[in-house]
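Need the bound structure for 3-acetylpyridine adenine dinucleotide, inputs here:
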Amino acid sequence: MAEKDVDVVVVGAGFAGMYLLHELRKQGFSSRVLEAGDDVGGTWYWNRYPGARCDIATTDYQYTWDPELLDEWQWSEKHAAQPEILRYAQYVAKKHDLYSGIDFEVRVDKAAWDDSAKKWTIHTSTGETITCRHYVMATGCLSVPKDPDIPGTDRFKGNVYVTGRWPHEGVDFTGQRVAVIGTGSSAIQSMPHIASQAKQLVVFQRTPNFSMPAFNGPQPPGRVARLKADRVAYQNEARMSPTGVPMEMATVSALAVSREEAFAMLEKSWRKGELLQIGATFTDVGINRAANEVVCDFMRSKIHEVVKDPETAETLSPRGHAYGTKRPCMDTNYFEVFNMPHVRLVDIRKKPITSITETGIDFDGESIEFDSIVYATGFDAMTGAIVNVDITGKNGLTLKKKWENGPLTYLGLTTVGFPNFYMITGPGSPSVLSNMMVSIEQHVEWIRDALVDMRDKGFETIEPTAAAEEDWRVHCTDCADITLFQDTNSWYMGANVPGKPRVLLPYIGGVGRYRRICTEAMQRGFLGFELQGNGKQQLNPGPVRLMQPDVEMMLDVMATLELPPIEAMSPAEARGFMDASATMRAPGPDVGEIVDGTFPGADGDLEYRVYRPASAGPHPVVVYYHGGGWVLGSHTSDDPLCRDLCKRADVMIISVNYRHAPEARFPAAVDDAWAALQWVAKNASAFGGKPDQIAVAGWSAGGNLAAVVAQMARDNGGPKLKGQLLLTPVTDGSRQSASYIENGEGYVLTKNVMEWFWNHYASAEDRKSVKASPLLAPSLANLPPAMIVTGQFDPLRDEGNAYAHALADAGVPVKRLQARGHIHTSITMVDMLPSGQSVRAHMASGLREFFAGN
Ligand code: N01
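Answer from helper R.:
Posting the output first, comments after.
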């Protein structure tokens, strides 16, 4: 007799539910696993259409938790077909006696949280009621076929098939007239099989898709050898990789090589026959439209090579979306199908289907009769299976209601208002953008460890905090914003289901990174969660430290380069290193004109560079001081940033050099910065600038100089400045703030590097001067309006913020922007880190505001 009250109810007996059952038993939890089908396998149980195969190679798409399986189970192919994967699931279920823990042909209709009992009550399709402490949805992401939403679907009297609900006995299309609607993965895989049997095949295509040949065959010997040589290392590499598959990562932009080179590199990736390799050929396929277009061109050229009729080839060539923003497909002879005389392609964007009829399909004035119609029209992905169950959390809130504007989760695992409720590979986790096996195992293990920890400590409930959920939403949006996904109507965005909110459903920050965040949340005492039970409460609001995804990627790359620490170098070596790094960066946007020259510094001539906008002048003028800790850099070292600001703000930027330490210590740089300002004020008109519209700006040590000269201008009768834009400025060398401790290591500008800069620049006594530490000025009143930008993970963050607060306290108009997830250097990395774009856009509008109305 099955238990009516258990520790855990799990919905679904696919690979997630099976592994979870195994782990729950091992840890001594009682459980019920409820499965709608009559066997294990989940997606591989339902999707039995001909040609169904896994797009991820079998070396990577298999369980890792039972190491014996690696020797016991021999995959026959690189990309296993559905029957073999289902047999694998059945083998594992038998081996580990999982069948005895699963109720088949049972659906969960309703689940409700009982806040007084601190338990879930589950109602099933068999009329059973089960109570449980924890409730897990292991329902898969692509398990609810979407309504085809075509008029007349219920009228057709012939055979109707849906790829995601294929008859177990198979279908023989021999001699039939067949229509296939849809050209996603399922259609692309099944089409060659259907075409080989059918008398006539008409394919109704709404959006063409990118697809590459799988080059299926035996398992790739290289991968198998690596896996067998060191299983643990291989699997760890998968777990920490961006997509859950060990893969060579790109090091070069698609735009940094010639088109011929780019195509040659893509050809190499293509030959590997691995789904994720094409997109990983270059660093910027996912984030840069022009780079992505190189890949699109290559993929389209492949279609034209195969499909003989140029018009059909063009109809099959995707033009409207960036590569990867709709799930790319893998096929075996898909495009070849369109060379067969009995196959016809109908572009329903040009020739829309008017109706399905009793005997066939009407479109664009034509009627064609069919024996069978195959709907390969996709799924209500990621959220469909979850909200299809009537789930009610605390205070009568249903999940459907809570998610009416898009799913809200913390870590894609849990959601506020629904205690002890978990989703495996749910929205807000890498899920469908990853190797599912890796993501499933990670979630199962996280849930298992959470349950064990709670039991050990006597807690009954766990629920994320509203703040953590909001932080996660913002972080997911930050990650999505730098990609090209949002411009495409895809099921990733919920766009395939009419009325579904448009939001990027999976987390796109990468599998390894996501794992680190989840592990950190648990290891640091369940950051972002509230736990309760037995009169105890543990509330740990966090925060999980969430860096911008591109900034973190850059730090990861830098870590692999094992660069020497700057503080171990001499100033000359550090300057050489910085110059060499500058040659590798993106150049920044074009501006109207660039002019170099010299001006009289405090102790001899110094260089300047003028960036003039393309618009007609005269322009407001910004005197810009470069970063580099008073030791490094020059008037050209922040070139991309100066170009970017000039263009965005439509102002003239004059970047001026100053003498550097240790050759010229404090106050040489200040004297030169002051001389530069006076000289610009005198000569602004000659440059085509407006002499009464001058502001100062600077980054880091340059921000320090800009702040100092703004005070000097106030105290010395002019020039009257319109504003000061200080980007991650140094404002107080006399002490170290909390951000030095929090962010002192690992974020390029370290505590040690900052100390190295100060030691070269100024003595301990000099640091107390207001010309070194503008925050120490006795009064900050009557200074020009300021915009102060700080980075969240910057040792100097608190100094910048303190200066902003002090200015505001003194009555100075201040705009303060703390750049979320940024480090000291990242905002300046124009065209390299897209997440800095919005920060620089704010900086530019800050500059515009300084000059507005004058
Ligand atoms: O579904 P899809 P799928 N009228 O949504 C079209 C995974 N998978 O089942 O693009 C006409 O991709 C729709 O057109 P459009 C994989 O992640 C994995 O093929 O919306 N057409 C599209 O062409 C995959 O991405 C594997 O304009 C309509 C097609 O139907 C996901 O499952 C194998 C329409 C649906 O394509 C889903 O794939 C198979 C309408 N009213 C699937 N409505 C492997 O790993 C929709 N369409 C092996």
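Comments: The mean pLDDT is 95. Residues 436-457 form the longest helix (22 residues).
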